[in-house]
Each structure stands twice: as structure tokens, then as C-alpha cells.
Amino acid sequence: MLDGEPFIRFKDSTFFKLCLQYWDVDGDGGITYTEGETAMPSLPSTAFRETRIVDATDFKYLSWKPSNECPLFKDCTDLKYAAIKDGMYLLGEMFRNCISLERVDLPTTVLDYDSKGGRSFENCKSLKHITLPINKKIYATYYFQESGLEELEFPDATIEIGGYACFKCGFLSEVTIGNGITVIGNAAFNSCPAMVSCYIKATTPPTITPYTFDNNNCNFYVPRASVNAYKAATNWSKYASRIIGYDF
Questions:
Q1: Angstrom distance (rounded) from CA 141 to CA 122
Q2: Which of 18, 155, 25, 172 is nearest to 90 (CA)?
């Protein structure tokens, strides 16, 4: 029978070895759940970057602070699975160029909910589905650019989708945008040839540019009472024939 608190049993030995220096407070060669919760290291931008990690799902047991806007897993091209502890951070460039990433479990809520860090999932070509935090307000520039996402739902807390956020997402077919949206940036959904439907719950048409939805033939489903407002709004009028009333 073992004495003391059990260690977190990491699935990936490479990830485990990298984590030891930050969370093994007592230096006993393992990380307990208490250490994972309370150590709260300030992670540098190079903590995991460009390493051979495949499975980082045990990151969900670890509390941490960013030393800056740090791209923790950027260029981890072997990374397939990841998870982030609830109430932590979703930083700019955090998973940029993780071309093998298939699944990432994001926090229900994040601390940096109004961060303008972009490119978090840029070029994640193997990522098909993702569930976004319910409190994140801004998805900044190039956030999902050229990713493999097939569908995407922005929660009601989202007020801004940045320029080029989903530019050239070639497999993206359906997008739902919550009722808090006020701005959809330049070319945010430009060159999304597979996109069929864009559901927008906001009663007031969000601001867009002439190029937000260029090279994109999707239909726009908006609240029935707002159809005329959308059809008359600046830069929306050219899509009038594709704006359809919908009961949310």
C-alpha cells in the first residue's frame, strides 16, 4: 500500500519530463494532484514549444500563469491531443502550426476572456471540431486561419471575431454566432468554399467589411424580426438575397 498522495500518471513521457521542472515542487520525481493545482508556475513561451509531445491531455490537471502572451504548444507538429484546465488561459498562438492536433478540450471559462492574442489555432489542419469557452469575448486575427474545422459555434459572450479569423478554412460548412456579436472583421470568413450556413443570433447586424464573407456562398440565418435591418445594413446589403429569417 502506497503512502501519501498519488502522482498524476501522465500519458505522454515527453510531456511529463517537461512538466517536472515546473510542478514537481518537492523534487521527488513526480507531480501530485495537489502540486498540479497549487504550484502555479509562470510558464515561459518556450515551455513546450517545438517539442515532440503527442498527448498533452494531462495538462487539464495543471494550474499555471503565462509569463507573457506565450505560444505554449506552437510548432508541436506531433501533438494530437490536448486539454486545458478550467479557469486557465487560451493564449495567442497557443496551438499555432500544430498540424496533427485532432482534439483539444478547452476550458469552460478562461481568465483571459478579453485577450486580443490571435493565431491560436492557425494551421491546425487536423482539427475538425472544437467547443469554445462560454465567456471568451474576442477571437482575434487569424485565430483559426487555414484550420481543418468543419463547424464552429461562437457563444453569446463573443463580441468580436477578428480579421481573417477563419480565412481559408476549406472544410468549414456551418457557423453559429451568438447574440452578443458586434464586429466580424475583415475577411474573417473569406475563402470558405464549403460554408453553407451562417447562423447569427444578434438582433442588431454586426459591423462587417466588404470582404468579410467574400468567396463564400453561404446563406445567413438571422432573427426574423431583424431580416430587413440586416438587408439594409452597410456591407450586408449585397447579401440580401441570402439573408433568411430564423427562429432561434
A1: 10
A2: 155
